[in-house]
């Protein structure tokens, strides 16, 4: 049996990379794993249509320079294999990895809410479209409607435009207060692209949201509510996302406390669980700068350099204040909870419609009676949506956390390697 | 350039392209058929929703988190 790794970091976004680089000079053995094919997380997603900022390429180069950092891309966590042991899987193999300390940097995903037609091909998340474009999806010449909430809509619009799409509408559900400027400063986006999208194109609307995606086999148009007006817009793609929700599932399965949809940490980025830390957007939505400084603090604390970590507290506090204002500005309009109609599928894995869920009193009751959340995504989409729609507390994830091969699951009976 | 096949149809894509991106050059751009028979395409683009699951060389994989490789056989209607 090989020794457990000194420090395991889950997630290679800004937080995970910063944590690894802060801990590496101590010489301890570090493993960083991420389920994407390349490091970078959401904001620095790499691909044929992506242009990474210098800070991202530099951090990636530094990760490679440390011989004590091992990066496992394309690797996911399948289950907890015992105290401080996780079952992992990549394209070739499954294995159990033991660790002394763990930093959760699992980031955030988009909040996707059901509306009529959202299962049509051509409809994606807002950040989802950006991610797909960066990874090579061609959008040149396509008419795109971007809808939902938060600064991600503009980031996504900028990426779509840069790749030759015509962004015909950007519909922000929040009212005037949201774009009053200050809150958006948190986000690093190409300033020029941002202006092109918001000012020149005239496509940006406030207090606007999707009512329905229209089409038979594929998206053809979108019906939108803008203030009191209803309009129909012909388009090839609809990218719709309602801001971000932290990925807390793994933390919660390990026993970390989750409150207000985020993993709870103290000022040292420690969770309530000894030797388990968390940093970045899994502890709350806050943008890349906050993720970077939290990651750095977690990495330093994990190697016992508390004093150095403390020096970064003021920086973290500054970015946290921005994040708090951002979150207030984009509060969701309750009208969005009523977009789904009786036959709108809420659970896309098991095809369970809204009407079958609405009569239940809790997630568990709905799940047992309808199979909602029992499919491949394990409720990551529908349970998160149901939390917003019905106020139901999402369940704790059961292993396997995502579909895994039988051979991988068989490793649970073997000693750690 | 790499060459792969999607549902038997040959396709050339640039290095670094994900299978999810390659699907947009395939027949109906879709990745799977839902339990009630609807065709579905990648939704979240980031490994969460599982709508993009396809069969690659006999194994279930997420198209949005898998890079295209030369000679890959991708199936969306197993
Ligand atoms: C599409 C998109 C675009 C964005 N664009 C911007 C932007 O322009 N500006 C900005 O400030 N912010 C942006 N954000 C917000 C962004 O999430 C943060 O700014 C920043 O990326 C957060 O860093 P992080 O390290 O906390 O998490 P992330 O960057 O989300 O990284 C977490 C990583 O962990 C991986 N992971 C999660 N769980 C597991 C697991 N169980 N096993 C293996 N790997 C796992 C994820 O796949 C991901 O790669 C964007 C978010 C999204 C979703
Ligand atoms: S598109 Fe959602 S998991 Fe791939």
Automatic annotation (TrEMBL), chain A:
Keyword Acyltransferase: no
InterPro entries: BFD-like_2Fe2S-bd_dom_sf, FAD/NAD-bd_sf, FAD/NAD-binding_dom, Metab_Enz_Cyan_OpOx_G3PDH, Opine_Oxase_asu/HCN_bsu
Pfam families named among the record's database cross-references: Pyr_redox_2 (PF07992)
FAD/NAD(P)-binding domain location: 6-287
Domain of life: Bacteria
GO function terms (MF aspect): oxidoreductase activity
Gene3D superfamilies: BFD-like [2Fe-2S]-binding domain (1.10.10.1100), FAD/NAD(P)-binding domain (3.50.50.60)
Keywords in alphabetical order: Oxidoreductase
Protein name from the UniProt record: NADPH-dependent 2,4-dienoyl-CoA reductase, sulfur reductase
Gene source species: Pseudomonas abietaniphila
Species lineage: Bacteria, Pseudomonadati, Pseudomonadota, Gammaproteobacteria, Pseudomonadales
UniProtKB/TrEMBL annotation, chain B:
Keyword rRNA processing: no
Domain 2Fe-2S ferredoxin-type residue range list: 1-78
SUPFAM superfamilies: 2Fe-2S ferredoxin-like
Name of this chain's protein: 2Fe-2S iron-sulfur cluster binding domain-containing protein
Any one GO molecular function term: iron-sulfur cluster binding
Gene3D superfamilies: 2Fe-2S iron-sulphur cluster binding domain, sarcosine oxidase, alpha subunit, N-terminal domain
A Pfam family hit: Fer2_4
Keyword set, alphabetical order: Oxidoreductase
């Amino acid at each position: 049996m090989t020794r457990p790794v000194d420090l395991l970091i889950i997630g290679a976004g800004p937080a995970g990379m910063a944590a690894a680089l802060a801990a590496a000079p101590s010489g301890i053995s570090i493993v960083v794993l991420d389920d994407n094919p390349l490091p970078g997380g959401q904001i620095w997603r790499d691909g044929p249509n992506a242009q990474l900022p210098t800070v991202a390429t530099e951090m990636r180069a530094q990760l490679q320079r440390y011989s004590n950092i091992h990066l496992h891309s394309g690797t996911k966590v399948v289950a907890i294999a015992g105290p401080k042991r996780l079952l992992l899987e990549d394209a070739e193999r499954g294995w159990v990895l033991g660790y002394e300390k763990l930093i959760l940097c699992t980031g955030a995903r988009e909040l996707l809410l059901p509306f009529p037609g959202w299962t049509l091909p051509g409809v994606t998340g807002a950040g989802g479209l950006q991610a797909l474009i960066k990874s090579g999806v061609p959008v040149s010449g396509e008419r795109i409607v971007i809808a939902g909430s938060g600064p991600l809509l503009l980031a996504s619009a900028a990426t779509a435009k840069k790749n030759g799409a015509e962004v015909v509408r950007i519909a922000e559900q929040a009212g005037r207060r949201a774009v009053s400027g200050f809150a958006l400063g948190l986000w690093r986006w190409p300033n020029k692209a941002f202006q092109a999208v918001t000012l020149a194109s005239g496509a940006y609307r406030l207090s606007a949201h999707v009512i329905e995606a229209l089409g038979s086999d594929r998206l053809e148009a979108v019906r939108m509510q803008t203030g009191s007006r209803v309009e129909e817009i012909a388009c090839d793609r609809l990218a719709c996302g309602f801001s971000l929700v932290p990925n807390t599932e793994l933390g919660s399965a390990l026993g970390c406390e989750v409150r207000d949809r985020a993993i709870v940490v103290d000022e040292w980025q420690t969770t309530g669980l000894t030797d388990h830390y968390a940093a970045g957007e899994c502890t709350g939505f806050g943008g890349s700068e906050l993720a970077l400084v939290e990651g750095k603090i977690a990495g330093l604390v994990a190697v016992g350099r508390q004093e150095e970590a403390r020096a970064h507290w003021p920086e973290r506090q500054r970015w946290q204040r921005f994040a708090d204002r951002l979150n207030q500005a984009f509060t969701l309009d309750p009208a969005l909870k009523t977009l789904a109609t009786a036959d709108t599928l809420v659970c896309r894995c098991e095809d369970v419609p809204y009407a079958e869920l609405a009569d239940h009193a809790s997630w568990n009751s709905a799940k047992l009676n309808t199979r909602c959340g029992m499919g491949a995504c394990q409720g990551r989409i529908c349970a998160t949506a149901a939390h917003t729609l019905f106020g139901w507390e999402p369940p704790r994830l059961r292993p396997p956390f995502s579909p895994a091969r039988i051979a991988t699951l068989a490793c649970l009976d073997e000693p750690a390697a | 350039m790499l060459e792969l096949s999607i549902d038997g149809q040959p396709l050339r894509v640039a290095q670094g392209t994900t299978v999810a991106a390659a699907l947009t050059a395939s027949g109906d751009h879709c990745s799977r058929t839902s339990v009630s028979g609807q065709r579905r395409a990648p939704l979240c683009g980031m490994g969460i929703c599982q709508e993009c699951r396809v069969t690659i060389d006999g194994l279930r994989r997420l198209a949005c988190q898998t890079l295209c490789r030369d000679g890959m056989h991708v199936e969306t209607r197993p």
